Each structure stands twice: as C-alpha cells, then as structure tokens.
Amino acid sequence: MRDFETSGRSLAVGTHGMAATSHPASTLTAIEVLKAGGNAMDAAVAACAVQCVVEPGSTGIGGDCFALYAPEGSTRIVAFNGSGRLPAAATLAWYEAQGIRAIERHSPHAVTVPGAVDAWARLVADHGRMRLSELLAPAIRMAREGFAVTPRVAFDIKINLDLLRRDPSVRSTFLVDGEAPAIGTVLHQPKLAQTLEQIGREGPQAFYRGDVAVDMVDHLRSVGGLHALEDFAAVAGEYVTPISTTYRGRTVHECPPNGQGIIALLILNILSRFALKTDALDADDLFVKTEATRLAYAERDAALADPRLAAVPVEYLLSDALADRLAARIDLSRAVHPLTVDDATEHKDTVYISVVDKDRNTVSFINSIFNAFGSALMAPKSGVLFHNRAQSFSLAAGHPNAVAPGKRPLHTIIPAMVSEGDRVTLSFGVMGGHYQAMGHAYFLSAVLDHGLDLQAAAELPRLFPKPGSDEVEMEARLRAQVGATFEARGLKVVTPPLPIGGAQAIAIDWDKGVLFGGSDPRKDGCALGY
C-alpha cells in the first residue's frame, strides 16, 4: 500500500471497464464510449482521436498506429501494424544525387505516408461495435468548439516554440500571436474537425483519396517532397503475428518488426539470467538493466528494419544463445565498451492507450507522430499535422534499414500485453521513442521482480542509456542515489532534457473480477475505472 502522506496517485480500480491514457479528456471519452455500449476497441479509437486534438504534440491523424487486441482477454491475440511507407519515388540513389546526407526533421523527406487512419478504420470495422462517425464525434466537437491546454501540452509547445513558428499553418493553429499559449488557453482546430467529419462520414478513403489527399500531397510536394496521390491511395496496414518470450513465468507479447518490441523481449531475456533484488532502485540492478539495454540496442541498430524488404533475424534476436552471450558480457565493475554507434534521431512523442471492457476485451494501442509535433509541417486546408517518422531510416547503402521505395522504417512505438495460462493479465505500454523498449522491460521488472503495483511502477524514477553512447540520462532522484556509482563504472550521467517516457497499464484480476489501472504522472492523463 502506498504512503498517503507523500505525493503520488492511487491505483484506479473498477469492475466493469477501465481506460488509461495520457490525457484526461481521452480517458473520459473512452469511459463514456464503454458506458454507451462500445467495446474496448471502440473506446481506444475514440480516445486516440480526442488526443489527436487535445495532445497535438504527441499524436495525430498524420501519424502511425500499432495495436494488440485480445478478444475476451484470451491469448488469441491479434496484432495490427499501421505504420506508413516511403513514397514510391524515394530511392537511395535520389537522396545521393541530391546530396542529402541526413533526413532533416522539418522536411518533407521526414514524412512517410500516414497509416493511423487506415488502422483505426480497419480495427473498428473488424473488432468494434460502433460506427466510426460516432467514435470520432467527441474529437470533432473538441476540435471545433475548443479545448483547454493542459500543463504538459503547454510545456511541449513552449519548448518547441521556434520549430512551431516555421510553418504558417502550425503557427496559427497552436500559437497565440506567435507565442506559446498559457495553461488553460482555449485552442481550436476547425480544419481538423472538418477532416475528421469527412473520415467519419466517408471512411478512410476520405483521407487517402479526394480533397484531403490532394491537400496533403500538394503541400508536401510544394516543399520538395516525393509524395504522390498513388502513394496515399495504396495505404494498407496489415495484421501480423505477435512475438513473445517468457519472463518470470509469464508470457510477454509484442508486435513483430518493423517495431522494436522484439528488443524489449531481448532485454527481458537478458534480465532473466540475473537474480534481481527486492529494492527496485538497487544500484547493481539498475546497472544490469542499463547494460542489458545498451547491448540490446546495439543489436537493434544493426538488424531491425522492415521485414518485407530486409532480412530481420527474429529467431536469432529471441534466442537463448544471444541472451546468454549478451548477459555474459555484463560486468558489475565496468560498463561494456565499445558499442555500435547509433546515428538515428531521437524519438520522443507518442500516446499510449489501454482499455479493458466488461467482457474483458483488451486493447493495447499506440499512436504517434514521432518527435513533438512531428515534422511541424501541416497541410493547410485539412489541418493534418505530419509526423517525421522517416528520420528513422538509414542513408547508408546496404544497411537493413536503408531508404527504399515503399519501405517502412524501424519503428519505436510498441504496445504490449502479458498473459498467464490462456488469459491476458496485463495490458501496458510506455511512451518515449527510443526509451520504449527499455521502458517495457523496466516497467515489467518493477512489477514482477520488485512487487510494485502498476501506479508505483509508473512513478518509479527512470534512467535511459542513449543508444550507441556512454551517456545515461537519469532523473534527479536516481542521479543523487546512484549517479556516482555509474560514473565510477565508466558511464557518463546526464540530466534528461525532458521527463523520460510515460506509461499506462491495466491489470486484470480474473479471480476477483477486478481491474487495476495506472497512469504516468509525467503526463496529464489518468486511469479511470467503473
């Protein structure tokens, strides 16, 4: 039981249904959908659409989506990959001929064709109960009538102010007289409201064909993009087979590559070789988790890519042999050097949503525009803010994750589930770009190794070794407690520029018939049950 005299939140508890998101309006929308007769998938899509309006720095319809769905909480888990692809004209030779050595964030070359809207429509049609128009209605209302800026959203706008001033449509949408809005300022997105209405009325073709698609393509091409209407018309996400590993007697399920869920499983496989202590903040255990992450991410950056266009060694990455070999490299007295250097950009902003309904249909759902406010490019007539996911690609010839026509990049966003026997017992996710794979392992270890409840596990102070370097970002409490120990072992401790990640989770107690939820205090959101 938590200490009620200290700051923090209690677990959310419910019996009929529960939602956990990073924005209160989104969580409330999900609960309202459940109470109106919708199921968990309906609620997740409605909640995500709301976040595309009220948490615009983290997600949008110009982004991508992944989901895991467990019907009635069974282990017949369905995975959906809604990540977008490069335009057909995007060849590595073209980039080389143009002298492009890196993909810049505020650039049309950072924009893959968004996959989120297609994913929402497919998932609702296949697994929901309500019409898409009904589910988008709350988001449409908030976009048209206005929404009040919450503290984390205000923070994200302020620290990205210079970027947001660059695009006229972005500037007029999110800034007030060119300045960051104060907490409580009411913003409107009428163009986005109109686009969402069209999608609700006509389905995803309203986004990928017709006037909205023309607006998006025209804008991207006007700033030098290679996008064509045919690229948008060809969008189709896909159902994929989840991958899994066993950790402390439970099965952990993730989406397969091109996402980095496989790296979360690799970290867990390495950690399973160690007997961790009861104290979640033990210096040696934190060092083991850090080294396991550094080693696993080096494997990620060498091998992870779109399996349609590159050979991704899934069996090898999940093998006992690899976990044994990497675990044997961990020395408590000294950090591993050298590691493969990662030249990928940092990825920070995403929303993660977990919903469980009265029938125990369970959804683990994630939607992202990559960095805060993505590319900060907005289609002027439709109000679509584009992500910058293509910055994940490599421009090195021969690299598995190198640019190629119609290719999906290495993806950082990863939903997860845990099962015991033939039932799902936990739906969870951790936002934060690169951090997500470590975040999954760190969160799950806090629950299974150290006995923390979901809320305490979300509130635990965090650290993250920056891929390919000897730097470890540490939140203040950890810097004071273990920073010197890490420095003595050859790692450089640094202050994170932003709060590290954000987690949401829902656990199902099948015997009691009770749901438990937690939501990260680093975001504005909450978990609610009824």
Question: Roughly how many Å is the radius of gyration?
Answer: 22 Å
Low-confidence stretches: 341-345
Arithmetic mean of pLDDT? 95
CATH architecture of the largest domain: 4-Layer Sandwich
Total of DSSP H or I helical runs spanning 4+ residues: 19
Helicity range of the residues?
Answer: 25-40%
Identify the overall geometry: globular
Distance between the termini: 21 Å
Domain count, please report it: 2
Beta content comes to 15-25%
Sheet with the most strands, sense and barrel status: 7 strands, antiparallel
Description:
- The chain has 530 residues and is an alpha+beta fold.
- The chain folds into two domains: 218 residues, no CATH class; 223 residues, Glutamine Phosphoribosylpyrophosphate, subunit 1, domain 1, CATH 3.60.20.40.
- 36% of the residues lie in helices and 18% in strands.
- The protein is built from 19 helices and 19 strands.
- Strands 1-18-17-13-12-9-8 form a seven-stranded antiparallel β-sheet. It has a seven-stranded antiparallel β-sheet with strand order 7-4-3-11-10-2-19, with helices on one face.
- Helix 5 packs antiparallel against helix 9.
- The longest helix has 21 residues.
- The chain is globular, with a radius of gyration of 22 Å.
Please give a quick description of this structure.
About 35% of the residues lie in helices and about 20% in strands. By secondary structure, the chain is of the alpha+beta class. Strand 8 and strand 9 form a beta hairpin.
List the helices and strands and how they pair.
Blueprint (H helix, E strand, L loop, with lengths): L11 E3 L3 E4 L2 H12 L4 H15 L9 E7 L7 E5 L9 H6 L18 H12 L4 H14 L1 E2 L2 H9 L1 H4 L3 H7 L11 E2 L2 H13 L2 H4 L1 H13 L6 H5 L4 E3 L2 E5 L2 E5 L6 H11 L11 H21 L10 H4 L2 H9 L20 E8 L5 E9 L45 E5 L2 E9 L3 H14 L5 H6 L3 E3 L5 E4 L1 H13 L3 E3 L7 E8 L4 E6 L6 E4 L1
Parallel strand pairs: 15-16
Antiparallel strand pairs: 1-18, 2-10, 2-19, 3-4, 3-11, 4-7, 5-6, 8-9, 9-12, 10-11, 12-13, 13-17, 14-15, 17-18
Helix pairs in contact: 1-2, 2-5, 5-9, 13-14, 13-16, 13-17
